Amino acid sequence: MSDKLDTKYVTAGRSKKWTKGVVNPPVQRASTVVFNTVAEKNHAMANRAKQTLFYGRRGTETHFALQDAMVELEGGAGCALYPCGTAAIANAILCFVKTGDHILMVDGCYEPTRDYCDTILKKMGIETTYYDPMIGEGIRDLIKPNTTVLFTESPCSITMEVQDVPLLARIAHESDIVVMLDNTWAAGVNFSPFDHGVDISIQAATKYIVGHSDVMLGTAVANEKHWDQLREQSYLMGQCISPDDAYLAMRGLRTMGVRLKQHEASSIKVANWLAEHPLVDHVRHPALESCPGNDIYQRDFKGCNGLFSFVLKQSDSKATTALLDGMSHFSMGYSWGGFESLILANEPKSFNALRTVAHPQFEGTLIRVHIGLEDVDDLIEDLEQGLARYQEMLSA
Question: Catalytic activity annotated for this protein (predicted)?
Fold first, then answer.
């Protein structure tokens, strides 16, 4: 088996025990699995956690193929599947906490992750402390005797700070704290979680793994120490996905390598163009020096993708509306990772209202873009015209 990533995209999860000799693992739909003998049933019972057909919620061979593929790509000992990325985050945390525990959550996390901590976990008597994504060694001061989970997200959602995950993981492990990472931006391949101290790597596979904006899916890959607990407690909480969605994720994997390369090349070209635009204060693309944590990105990441942000020099809601309303190739929409380009605006006050310690040090409107697979010059022209509308409204 090749260890080269471009080959893994094509071969991962395609063991003949799952494909039965055809190219793709067939879609195997099942709730009930039937047995002809007591011995067969007992064997399935004894091996139900070891990719043996037992009951639909434990998975079918279609699910097993996807789980194998994710482990081959990210490393680790096993992969749990969830109906969306938020479910993967929520359940992975819940598998390792109890009432009275304390967790450390990066202040730049995905907004639903924060909402989960502030509502569900709080209701369960689990305390959350938010920390600055660039905290470094200072994380020591936030660890309590009852801290059980350190949650990282790198780059952070929207503002794109790149965290020093290896440093944070090393410090957390000194206190036997479970280190989790939302690894969606790196698609599990541009940042190797288990080489950098992560215990559980979580993804919204909705994004680049599926790649076509038509499936909701979450994954959590765990190392050997934490795999059994993650698997069994996720199962007890009823987490499962449809085999059809698993199949579509497998199909997306086959082209993810070439898609990511194109997303990367186009996004860097657009980011460099934006960095020179007179209306732009700075660009928050992890591959550019202007992004917080770029030095960490250069050290730890193998590449990037199409998602980044840029900050305008001013904040004017009417001008921002003029920019957004007339786009030809960029659409407004939540999520990202598909073949299409997306754009959303965020005002500084929204960050200040949400965050507790990592307040962005800028005053202009932040624009988050996902650079899709359209011709990059068309995308630059679209942004150029949008910024011209923005300037015209400012001058009116």
Answer: L,L-cystathionine + H2O = L-homocysteine + pyruvate + NH4(+); an S-substituted L-cysteine + H2O = a thiol + pyruvate + NH4(+)
Residue 308 backbone dihedrals phi, psi, to 5 degrees:
-160, 175
Q: 195, 164 in Cβ contact below 8 A?
A: no
Q: Known catalytic residue: 116?
A: no
The domains found in the chain, sorted by start residue, are 255-395 (3.90.1150.10)
* C-alpha–C-alpha distance, residues 42 and 44, integer Å: 5
Q: What confidence category does residue 258 fall into, taking pLDDT thresholds of 50, 70 and 90?
A: very high
Is 110 marked active-site?
A: yes
Among 9, 110, 131, 247, the one annotated catalytic: 110
DSSP 8-state symbol, 3:
-
DSSP secondary structure, 241-300, as one string: --HHHHHHHHHHHHHHHHHHHHHHHHHHHHHHHHHT-TTEEEEE-TTSTTSTTHHHHHHH
Asked if residue 346 has pLDDT above 80, the reply is: yes
pLDDT, mean of residues 100-112? 97
Point out the catalytic residue in the list 132, 164, 182, 199.
182
Of the candidates 29, 50, 57, 349, the residue annotated as catalytic is 57
Q: Which of 14, 58, 207, 389 is catalytic?
A: 207
Alpha helices in 154-209 (DSSP H): 165-173
Confidence of residue 358 (pLDDT cuts 50, 70, 90): confident
